[in-house]
Amino acid sequence: MDHSRAPMLEALAEYHRRGRYGFTPPGHRQGRGVDPQVTEILGMDPFRSDVLAASGLDDRRSSHRYLADAEELMADAVGAEQSFFSTCGSSLSVKAAMMAVAGNNPGGLLLGRDSHKSVVAGLIFSGVMPRWITPRWDADMHFSHPPSPDQVRAGWERHPDGAGALVVSPSPYGTCADIAGIAEACHERGKPLIIDEAWGAHFPFHDELPTWAMDAGADVCVVSVHKMGAGFEQGSVLHRQGGLVDGDHLSACADLLMTTSPNVMIYCALDGWRRQMVEHGAQLLGDALTLARRTRDRIDQVDGMTVLEDRLCGKEASHDLDLLQILIDVTATGASGYQCADWLRDHCDVDVGLSDHRRILATMSMADDEATTDRLVYALSELGLAAGSFDPPPAVDLPSPEELQLDSEMAPGEAFFGPVEMVAADRAVGRVAAEQLTPYPPGIPAVVPGERLDRAVLDYLRSGLRAGMTIPDATDPALDSVRVARERD
To answer: Could you tell me if residue 1 is inside a domain?
Structure first.
C-alpha cells in the first residue's frame, strides 16, 4: 500500500481548496459565528477544519472511502487485519471490544484487577460480570504488575465459561505483560484476548520497544495515539486479527458507542501520525530512546531521586518496560510524590504525568529534545534541594495486597443502576459499593461497584485524600460518605 498517502488529510485539503460551504452543522460555519474572544485564543484553524458533517469524511461506506482507506492503511502499517478509528478515546474502544467479546455472556470476562476505570465503565454498561485476575504485587513498594500467564491459566481454571480475557499492558508506569504467554493461555481454550494497550501505540514502529500486542498474538488491542504518539486527545485506534472476534460485530459495537458527529481533526491526526511512523518512526523513536536512556541516568544522579528500572522487570515483576516512561522514587527526599508534583508545577511550571505517595512519573516522547530534558533535570535538581524544607507528608494508610482484593458480590451494572443510598464512611464497611472510587492518575479503581467494602481500603482512600490523592469519581469528594447498594429487607 502507498503509505505516502494520508486520505483524511487529502480530503480535508481538497475541501478547503474547492471553497465548499455547507448549510449543515456545525453551526459556527468554519468559524464565522465563533465568539472573537474564543478565536483570539484558539485561532480560526480548528474551526476551518471542523467540517466533517458537511464533507462526508466520516462515512466508511461512502463512495469516497476517505476514512475506510485511512483505516486500511493503519492496519497495513501495523500488521493488523482491521483497524477502526475512534474520536472518543480508548475509553470507547475498550468498551466496544468488551461488548463484542462478552456481551450477554453469563460466563463473564477475565480481567486484570489493575484495569483502568474505562474498563469498569464497560462492565457497568454491558452488564458483564468481572472474573478478576489478581495482579502481581511488590508489597514493599506498593506497586502492581500485570498478571502472568500462569495467573491467567489459573483464572481459566476457576472460570472456564468466561467469554475471553482482557489485560492492561503496558501499565501507566510503562511495565508490560508477557502477552505472548497470556495469548497462548487463552488460545489453548479457544478464547480471545483483548489487550488494553492505550500506552503502547508506538510499539509497532521500533524493535527496541516492548513487543506490540498484535505481534504477540492478541486478538484485539486498543491504543491511544495521543498518549505516546502525535495525535489529538481522544484519538484512539481499535485493531483486530484472527478468527476469534468477528470484525463486523466489533465494528457494530463501536458504532453503538461512537458519536455521530466525530471531529475530523482527530481523524486527520491519526492518519498523519500513521504516515509519519511508517516513513520516519524508526528514526524518531530510536532518537527518543537514546535520549531517554541518557535522561534516566542524569535523573538517577540527582540527590533524592531513584529511577526505577531493574525492580520493575523480572520473574516476579513485569515482562518488559517502556524506557520512555521514567518512574522516579522520591522517598529519599523525605517528601511524597504528591508534594513533589505540586512543587514542580508551582515553582518550575513543569507537570509530571503521575504521582503517588512515593513516586512521580515523567513521560518522554519522540517530541522531546535536549532542551526539554534539560528543563526536566534542572527542575528535579531544584526539587531535590527544596524538598528538605517541605512539611512532613501526611501518612497514607497503605493496605496489604490481600486487603486491596475486595470480594465481588454483585455485577457492577447491577450495583450501579440498582437501589442505592449514601451512608457515612464508617458505616459503609461491609456494604456493597455502588460507585467507583478511583485514585487518579493513573485511574485504576480501588473500589468497583458490586464489591464489598472493607475498612483497609476506605482508610487508604481517605488518608490518601488528606495526602494529596485525587478521587474524581467519588459522589462525596471528601469521602465522608459513600454510595452503596441498598440492602434488601
So the answer is: no
The H or E element containing residue 133 is strand 130-133
Q: Do 348 and 478 belong together in one domain?
A: no
What is the longest distance spanned by two Cα atoms in the chain?
A: 68
Domain that holds residue 57: 7-276
Task: With respect to residue 302, please indicate whether it lies within any of the assigned structural domains.
Answer: yes
Examine the fold and report which residue of 369, 389, 409 is the final residue of a domain before the chain moves on.
389
Express each pLDDT in 15-34 by its tens digit: 888 888 888 778 888 888 89
**Strand residue runs (E) in 404-444:** 420-424
How far is Cα 369 from Cα 374, in angstroms, rounded to an integer?
8
Half-sphere exposure of 258 (CA within 13 A, CB side): 23
| Residue at which a domain ends, from 341, 357, 389 | 389
Question: Could you please report the per-residue DSSP string of 365-389?
Answer: -TT--HHHHHHHHHHHHHHHHHGGG
Domain count within the chain: 3
Are 346 and 445 in the same domain?
Answer: no
Find the helix packing angle between 149-158 and 179-187, rounded to 10°: 30
SS3 276: helix
∠ CA 113-114-118 to the nearest 5 degrees? 95
Residue 250 sits at the vertex; the CA angle it makes with 248 and 254, to the nearest 5 degrees, is 115
Element spanning 223, H or E: strand 220-224
pTM of the model: 0.94
Q: How confident is the model at residue 185 (pLDDT cuts 50, 70, 90)?
A: very high
